[in-house]
Amino acid sequence: MPLTTFTGAKPLIYSLTQDEMKEWLVSAGDKAFRAQQIFDWLYVKRVSSFEEMSNLSKELREKLADTFRMEPLKEITHQESQDGTIKFLFQLVDGHAIETVIMRHNYGNSICVTTQVGCRIGCTFCASTLGGLKRNLDAGEIVSQVLTAQRRLDAEGERVSHVVVMGIGEPFENFESLMAFLSVINDNRGLNIGARHITVSTSGIVPKIYEFAERGGQVNLAISLHAPNTELRSQLMPINRGFPLAKLMEACHHYINKTGRRISFEYGLFGGKNDQPEHAEELAELIGDMLCHVNLIPVNYVPERDYVRTPRNEIFQFKRILEEKGINVTIRREQGSDIAAACGQLRAQHAKETVG
Fold first, then answer.
1. Which pLDDT does position 338 carry in this prediction?
2. Residues 6 or more apart from 346 whose CB is under 8 A from it?
3. pLDDT-based confidence at 355, cuts 50/70/90?
4. What is the pLDDT of residues 259-309, one digit of tens each?
5. What is the pTM of this model?
6. Known catalytic residue: 292?
């Protein structure tokens, strides 16, 4: 089972949804409406201490400080790409390190956040799983990544417009923290990031896809697919042995029928592994009757793995085959190719240097 969140310090104030904040205020003998004021201080004014919350009583500010912490994530290092992508390595209160990425697009600034310290899913092409899973993040630690990125963008007069939950870890293995995080960043009295501007990616935790269909609202769902048949997917993604492709497709159909929203399938192209014309034909057959979109991903080279990039002409051939079959498909724009862009690489480098 996944490890629990860190409990060796006061909880982060950022972990509380506005409803939970109201409950805490009432239990502390104060008024529920103060939750709106606190959210405004945290996420609109973006203060760094409870003392700055000047329209709250001194007694309430002291109670907040006694009960919660709000220290920012500690930056260990960051890398900035020529295309404007910024990859941060942050230290948590217990010393673990996580990654967060700011990506610049023509439609705005997207933040890629992490939900776990490490990962146990074991995808054979991913650096995030190197070293295994250490623990889950609590909701506040996930929120803090967006808030810290927003503070960086404040200096440029810009804002976080989109969030992708595609960093280190499997979000659906940390489901309740994920749902609290989504509530906080979507709150219109807080960061006010629209649900349709948020995407959660899963490797295929089938029971949670059903639950997300019930609770996810308008948040987008992406599935890391990476193979058109169950045998190949099991080679690339061991999770397929626990949740086989047929069951995953059933869950995807349920999600679409329940929500009326399309699913994005992420398909990394690995040279000679899953990128041949027959794979494209098979993929089109697998998902052709779904309300969906395919995001083809030219892989970033990971030194610890032996996968190579699919040649450019073969990427476009794969895309063309899908389009001819009526599949909506795009090729993900490469970002951060001149830095440690693949999930987990910067953290893995730091771990090596720390041990060394």
1. 55
2. 77, 79, 87, 89, 99, 339, 340
3. very low
4. 999 999 999 999 999 999 999 999 999 999 999 999 999 886 666 667 888
5. 0.92
6. no
Instruction: Please give the pLDDT value at position 304.
Output: 61
Q: What is the mean pLDDT of the chain?
A: 91
Please tell me the distance from the alpha carbon of residue 205 to that of residue 115, in angstroms, as a whole number.
Answer: 15
Mean pLDDT value across residues 328-332: 95
Q: Of 114-123, 124-133, 163-172, 264-273, which gets the smallest average pLDDT?
A: 124-133
Q: Is 71 among the annotated ligand-binding positions?
A: no
Pick from 114, 111, 109, 63: nearest CA to 92: 114
CA distance 155 to 151: 7
Indicate the pairing of strand 160-165 with strand 220-224: unpaired
Is 78 within any annotated ligand binding site?
no
Q: Of residues 99, 141, 173, 266, which has the active-site annotation?
A: 99
**Is 99 one of the catalytic residues?**
yes
224 labeled binding residue:
yes
Structural domains of the chain ordered from first start: 17-67 (1.10.150.530), 74-355 (3.20.20.70)
Contact (CB, 8 A) for 344 and 130: yes
